[in-house]
Design brief:
The complex is a heterodimer of chains A (about 500) and B (about 500). Chain A is α/β, with parallel strands linked by helices. Chain A contains 15 helices and 24 strands. In chain B, helix 3 packs across helix 7 and helix 10 packs across helix 11.
Chain lengths: ~500, ~500
């Protein structure tokens, strides 16, 4: 990446912006060194923040710092939004096919840089390298390619109510979309938002989490190389304040946010002042329901993966397992045995928590579980050593009123309890304030179809958990948010219809 | 037709513009180039010179059988049957990229085999790339529905592939027609047996090579060079082909449909001929309209199913338009396809040349007046001068029958009703155009013309995203756009009783 002094086209800037270098050589655990962009990516260039403020991102496996990146403040957000707005004027006239071609190119570049991007992501998030490359980065490739294909397939309708009126709808992009993504799947969630927004013809300002800015900033290199016109995609590293400024900016037209319910409410509140439409992908306390006729061995494996993957840092994690009473004891034992088996192969298998703050949050929930009388079956302790590791933790006999049954822990902590009948399980699953996902384990056709219909959640997995697919919509009910990502639905999130009526013969 | 004794499976070709490449000559079946079962081969002619330039292997009914078996196996067993929709789409995207990498070779083959101007051939290949990429993007976006009836049942539909599809394409846009057929059929998960036109077999075989390079599993795409009477007929009546798509003449279209009905009621879509009206109102931008009239008939040397071969001009501007059009028609550069300045190349074959010239003679006999053209261009190859007939009446054969050459007729109309009546006066209904500055005229004419496409202030501006097909005897079904997916899927309803 070439170091540049760039001349700003919009607004006035003090000389402190003109730094000599906005990249930093990072040495990855794999031994490879690469040039990590550390500037704010605006108008296809990396620039310093207006006040020079920076933040540090850490490696959760060691607790050691990796690099400093700039924090976008108000003037920077302003600059980025203005740039995106200005770019929208000509981007708007780019054909869907051409937008698709740029996304196909970006997809190809992500594929070319698969290992490097995976390494950056693994380093910044603490995830195991091989799964990041085969799962997260592959998903980035799939999603980008998928939405590249939608770009020129956005159809309005033509409607002829009667002879003298011909009407049609234009499905138009909003304009500048603010995309705010969390730290649990930094690059993947960035592309889940960016790809459909761009396919639909919007321009974007993307803000990655302060805990994991590196992969998104690196993406800036690929965006420029793919040939996107400057200003179409802008990436601002920053903190909570950056997000707040962005969400309340009067010149954005749409916000898509993924994160906690607490922050989601703040975002919606901020957006309310300018009546900006919002999509919120928030947390969950998703239930897995294991019926007595389930394939128990498979149910155990899927449920393990459903909570321990990414050390439980998944919005849709099936963190609460309701097991039919006749198989309850057996399931708990099998789950414990499977956990021990996984730990004996690799005690750090599930990865670290993202930060010391997050680790302490999760440990507080563990303590609360013990205090409230849940039965600690396995784990419950931090793992002594570098980084933010804790043991996978299993609580059984967790009653519905307990804090750990109701609140999102966001760590490798699973709570289990028994249920009697199907309606008991459904009622208890639906009693959550959240409604993101659910998993059902059964061999029965009727039980599967009927239970799916009755669960108040945006995704139901039957005989699996967490295996989302880029072609299938994903979104929450209740406190888990609203609006869908993935599938055709996501493109619709980034379009608004304009109706045009042609009067062909009604005279007054 | 002659024996295959000395016809190799591949041959190095050097084209008039210096492009050198390896041209496959065999039949592409089950992932390999092979000789025909009966050892036949036929000649390939360069229409710009009339010279034979080589031979390709010829498919007969026996080869169709082998290809269908390969396609059927690929459909039910093997990697294609298990492939995810996104992966199918990805293969089409790779094929599009390969077309792009080989653009110059493909365009040169087209100009060589079909006789069209190299500039237009390049445009064709660009449209092939767009089409393949477009359908590559559709592959994993083909959704069924979930439909509520009552609370005791859970119902959904699936859009499933049909199976082995037979496709028969013409010679006027050899590679573009190839892409129009392959794109949607493959995106929907079918396997295909495609027969190219005997006049233009070369491009389709080179494209087959690219299919192999892209990584399509064997048997998914099979490309056969051959004749309608043998290979084409075998496809239309094959008991294991469940869908046939044909583009060509109305005459042959009828035979295909008949064969389909008499064999196994395979699904049929037909893109046939046309006698499309190009209508100019007095409030049109005349200079622009004349450009579109010219492009509408002389593009591809008039060898377009949707050619604007009947030009209707409002009385008040008729004299002005015909004067301008006479000049414009004569300004078209006719000649060597490999000359970058050429707009109009050769007609595809001697037979076509003779057919067009016989219509020219017929027109004169019927009493029409030759404004410009009406004769051969040059003395080598099958070139015809851009021709305009005036003083025509609606009932003349040159006004009713498709000529498929650079020959149009121009006539007057009084008012909108008259224009509509004239526009709708044939048994065809493929395309049409209206040139006007008035919103209400445009809307009314567009509503009342009986044609599958109405262009307003343009002509021949097809696009892979826009459905294309005929009313009346111009055909059945639509190609291009999302509509094309209907041709290659069948709906299955699954209704689960929960009570």
């Amino acid at each position: 990446m070439i170091v540049r002094h760039r001349i700003l086209r919009l607004g006035t800037l003090p000389s402190s912006r003109y730094f000599s270098s906005f990249e930093f050589t990072v040495k990855l655990p794999t031994g490879i060194a690469y040039r990590q962009p550390t500037g704010l990516f605006i108008s296809n260039e990396f620039v310093a923040s207006n006040d020079g403020k920076q933040l540090t991102t850490y490696n959760p496996r060691s607790g050691k710092p990796i690099a400093n990146v700039f924090v976008a403040g108000s003037p920077d957000v302003d600059y980025a939004v203005q740039t995106a707005e200005s770019a929208f004027r000509s981007w708007r006239t780019t054909s869907g096919t051409d937008r698709g071609i740029l996304l196909y190119r970006l997809c190809g570049l992500i594929e070319e840089h698969k290992t490097l991007l995976g390494s950056i992501e693994a380093f910044d998030t603490g995830k195991p390298l091989d799964t990041v490359v085969t799962d997260d980065i592959q998903d980035c490739i799939n999603v980008t390619r998928y939405y590249a294909g939608w770009a020129d397939k956005i159809h309005g309708y033509s409607i002829q109510p009667f002879a003298e009126k011909f009407a049609y709808t234009l499905h138009e992009p909003f304009g500048v979309c603010a995309l705010i993504v969390p730290w649990n799947y930094p690059l993947m969630l960035a592309l889940w938002k960016l790809a459909p927004a761009i396919a639909a013809g919007n321009t974007v300002v993307l803000k990655p989490s302060e805990l994991t800015p590196l992969s998104s900033l690196y993406l800036g290199n690929l965006i420029t190389e793919a040939g996107f016109p400057p200003g179409v995609i802008n990436i601002l590293s920053g903190d909570g304040n950056t997000g707040a400024v962005l969400a309340s900016h009067p010149r954005i037209n749409k916000i898509s946010f993924t994160g906690s319910a607490t922050t989601g409410k703040k975002i919606m509140h901020a957006a309310a002042s300018n009546l900006i439409p919002v999509v919120l992908e928030l947390g969950g306390k998703s239930a897995a329901i294991v019926f007595e006729d389930a394939d128990l061995e498979q149910a155990v494996k899927w449920c393990y993966s459903g909570i321990m993957s990414n050390s439980g840092q998944i919005c849709s994690a099936t963190s609460r397992i309701l097991i039919q009473e006749s198989i309850y004891k057996k399931f708990v034992e099998m789950f414990k045995a499977y956990t021990i088996h996984r730990m004996s192969a690799d005690p750090l298998d599930h990865g670290p928590q993202i930060s010391d703050v997050q680790l302490e949050n999760v440990m507080q929930y563990v303590r609360s579980g013990i205090e409230e009388g849940a039965h600690l079956v396995y784990g419950g302790k931090e793992i002594i050593g570098p980084g933010y590791f804790m043991q996978p933790t299993i609580f059984a006999d967790v009653r519905d009123h307990m804090k750990i049954a109701q609140e999102e822990v966001f760590g490798p902590v699973v709570v289990m309890d028994k249920f009697t009948t199907q309606s008991d399980a459904i009622q208890r699953a639906n009693s959550s304030t959240y409604g993101l996902a659910s998993a059902i384990f059964t061999k029965s056709l009727t039980l599967a179809v009927d239970t799916s219909q009755k669960l108040e959640v945006g995704t139901v997995w039957v005989n699996s958990s967490q295996d989302s697919d880029f072609r299938v919509p994903f979104g929450g009910f209740k406190m888990s948010g609203f609006g869908q990502e993935l599938g055709e639905y996501a493109v619709k999130n980034y379009l608004r219809p304009k109706a045009v009526h042609l009067n062909l013969g009604v005279s007054l | 037709m002659s024996s295959t004794a000395s016809v190799p499976l591949f041959q190095k070709f050097k084209l008039p513009n210096g492009v050198e490449y390896e041209q496959p000559l065999g039949l592409f079946i089950n992932g390999e180039f092979v000789t025909g079962k009966e050892g036949k081969a036929f000649e390939v002619v360069n229409p710009s010179t009339g010279n034979v330039v080589g031979k390709v292997h010829e498919a007969t009914a026996a080869d169709v059988d082998i290809a269908v078996d390969a396609a059927e196996t690929a459909f039910y067993d093997g990697p294609w049957s298990k492939m995810s929709s996104a992966d199918r789409g990805h293969l089409l995207l790779k094929l599009a990229d390969l077309f792009e990498e080989n653009l110059t070779i493909l365009a040169s083959i087209e100009a060589f085999d079909n006789g069209k101007a190299i500039q237009l051939a390049k445009g064709d290949i660009g449209a092939c790339i767009g089409c393949l990429r477009y359908y590559g993007g559709w592959a994993d976006k083909i959704h069924g529905k979930v439909i509520e009836t009552n609370s005791g049942s859970f119902n959904f539909t699936k859009q499933e592939p049909i199976g082995v599809c037979g496709q028969i394409i013409p010679w006027n846009f050899p590679l573009l027609m190839w892409a129009w057929k392959i794109g949607p059929a493959i995106a929907c998960g079918n396997t295909v047996v495609l027969k190219t036109a005997e006049q233009t077999p070369l491009g389709g075989l080179f494209a087959a090579k690219l299919c192999k390079e892209a990584g399509f599993p064997p048997g998914v795409i099979n490309i056969l060079s051959g004749f309608g009477r043998t290979a084409g007929a075998a496809i239309a009546s094959h008991m294991k082909i469940h869908k046939v798509a044909f583009t060509g003449s109305t005459l042959v279209g009828r035979q295909i449909m008949k064969a389909a009905a008499e064999s196994n009621l395979k699904k049929v879509t037909l893109e046939l001929g046309g006698k499309s009206p190009n209508i100019v109102f007095e409030d049109a931008d005349i200079d622009r309209a004349v450009e579109w009239i010219n492009f509408g008939i002389y593009y591809n040397a008039g060898q377009c199913c949707c050619a604007g071969s009947r030009v209707y001009v409002q009385e008040s501007i008729y004299d002005k338009v015909i004067e301008a059009f006479r000049k414009r028609a004569q300004a078209n550069v006719v000649g060597n396809p490999f000359d970058e300045a050429t707009f109009q190349g050769a007609q595809v074959s001697e037979a076509q040349y003779n057919r067009i010239m016989s219509y020219v003679e017929l027109g004169k006999k019927e009493g029409a007046k030759v404004e410009v053209g009406g004769e051969r261009h040059g003395n080598e190859g099958y070139f015809i001068k851009p021709t305009v007939f005036s003083n025509v009446t609606e009932d003349m054969r040159i006004m009713q029958e498709e000529i498929f050459g650079p020959v149009c007729a121009i006539a007057k109309f009084k008012d909108l009703d008259d224009a509509i009546s004239k526009g709708n006066s044939t048994t065809y209904g493929l395309a049409s155009a209206v040139h006007t500055g008035s919103l209400s005229t445009a809307m009314e004419v567009a509503n009342r013309l009986r044609a599958g496409t109405v262009w307003v202030n343009s002509y021949n501006t097809l696009h892979w995203a826009l459905p294309f097909g005929g009313y009346g005897e111009s055909g059945i079904g639509r190609e291009l756009g999302k509509e094309a997916l209907r041709n290659y899927t069948q709906v299955k309803t699954v209704s689960i009783n929960l009570s």
